Predict the 3D structure of the following.
Amino acid sequence: MPSKNELLKKYSNKHAVNFDLVMKVFELERGRLHPGENEEKYRQQEVTELIEKWQESHPGDANE
Amino acid sequence: MIIERVTLTNFGSFRGVNPIDLKPDGSRNITLIVGHGGAGKTTIGKAIRWALYNLQFHGTSGHGERDYTHEDVLKLFFREGGGAQANKPPSESNMSVKLEILPGESIKSALTSHGLKVGTYVLERSASVGKIVPSARDVILNPLSLKGPNLREVPDPQGFIEEFLLPASTSTFFMFHGDRIRDLTKQIEQPVADSIKLILDVTAMTNAANDLQKVMGQLARKAAASSQDETLRKVKQATWDKLDEDEKKQSLLRDEKNIMLSETREAVRSLETQHGDLLQAAGLFEDFDRKEKEKKELEEENEHNERKIRSLLDQFPREVLYHSLFGHAFEVKKQEERNRVHEKKMESLTRDKQQLEEMLRGEVCHVCKQPFPKSMIDSYKREISGFAEKIEEETGLLHEPDPEYEAIMQEVVILGGNNYNPTELERAGFELRGEIQDLENEMNKIDVKLRKYKNADVREAAKRIDDEMRQKEREIGSLEESLRLFKSTLDQFQRNKRELEKELFKLGGGASKEVKRNYKMAESLSSVFGEAVTELADEKRQEIAFETGQMLMKTTIKRGLFHKTAPVDVDENFQIRAMNMNGDNLEWDEESSSERSILSVSFIYGLLKASEREAPVILDTFFGNLDPGHITNITANLSSFGSQIVLMTTNTEFLDLTEYAPQSFWDHVNRYIMLRNNSDTNFVTKQKVLHSRSEAENEAKSQKF
């Protein structure tokens, strides 16, 4: 059966998203599993920052 | 993760510093901790949970766990397990549990990417009390300390445990108390299902998809801020806000219903226990009545027996009853011998008397024909008279047969022919009284158990509880239905919000390029995680079902109970079900408790195989209720469960293992930690580490109690 990483790779390819970015998002989410509204807000803020930084350092990426 | 060593200092019955080595040695990955009840086995499990999570363990529903209070921590200082020292205030003021932990292989890259070292981490939780007779308020809990392989303090130890080791909520699966393990085959509650999703990484991916949706929403609103149509933007924004508010309200209501559902299920479980107790009590009442009837019959028999003995005692003197016929005959023989001695004496005396009388006849000498002198005649007469007296004396000593005694003897002989045996009767009476006493003891024991049910009609009470259970089950049905409705409503809200966000995004035609790019990126990422997690959850459910089924079929002793190719099904909420040979849900009967334990432990195996997390499997007194065949089958496969298996067994369980576990099991055992806590050790736990099975067996036999 495909592993979690293989599945993420499969759908990264399907949606043309960089796999490294996907894994970064996953690691960020995996590290913060405490339930709670504040935790969610913090995670969303971190994800937003991660996307912003990624876009800055990868200006030519797809998904425009 | 692997727990290489746990060091208990002044914790429970472990006084002083007690390092306990648990490190697996490659394929020799099983550590056995053996000790009698109260020796300290469970204390080790408790110490590990306290150190890692500060959590107390109450069950497998996930609801029973709670943090240690100061009162609870104070109790940890005390020795438990009996003896004069039990539950006395501590004489030591510091207590700690130190764990030396090696994070799992799969976590190495995550550690490195966070700038953390790979190697053994040392975690220490400690507490102190400042007084000789402390109370809960004197307990000082020290901050949790975690040092990395470079001996540097890790700033957020609890976060480290959650992120890199084993999250608290998942520990339920790996640290078990044997008699609770079967609960895993009952209805799985939401916290347990959530834990399963967490160790399968389903939670992280679901969170990612949801968080990205939220990020999209935020970006859409940011984009919409540049909208030319302010009114439309405001309307859409307000609609979104209203939906969001309604969704929050509905979520709260759903959470309440979920709690109600769990509580109702818990209530049903409690009612089931009460129902079982009442039915058992009803059985005991019946048993009591049966025993009482039996006792009455025995008492009547005993009464009859005693009457018979009394009547015999009335008929015969006691001496007859207590002497055997042989005894009487012996007495008679002795008496006859004595009579013969007397008769001989009498004969001799009579002869001497007759000779003298012959000599004295005519008072003339037979030889010289001269008359005897008068003095001589008087002397002979005195002598003859003396002989007569002696003869009379001897005659008096002769035993005269007693006619009454003779008659009794005759009766005894006649009754002997009719099985008369007084000794036998008395023995029968003794046995009867013993049986009556035994019955009384059993009845007293039952009476103690039934004391709380006195004056209660247990059958009636059981029926009432049964009705109450049915009512609760109807409530569960209605709660489940309303939760389904909540789910569809909330899904609808989510879809509507997503639509509105798209519309808001479209309104923001003039938004910055960055915002638009970020929105698109978040949308793509959300799709990646959303689609991947749906497939992952399905894959993992199938994998758990497959692996659990494989292990179940290897370890069951009733293969015929289960479906041949798909013995196990795992539903969307990770509820595990065994399937019968027709492919329907298997209904367990009461005799299958051992099979249910096997299914539960197979489920743990399935979870460990499906999860990428590595965890030690700690089973506390798991084998006690298993059938010998299950012990053989499960021990043959135990080593394949994970890289570290810790088994805690009683001495009796261990000796059962020596009888039923195959050699392949013993080949994987790396050490035997023998615990003892009794009067020999002043009620302090002492450990002895052995490396051979025979030594451990001898040790367990020597202290089997």
Remarks:
- The helical segments of chain A are 4-14, 19-30, 37-57.
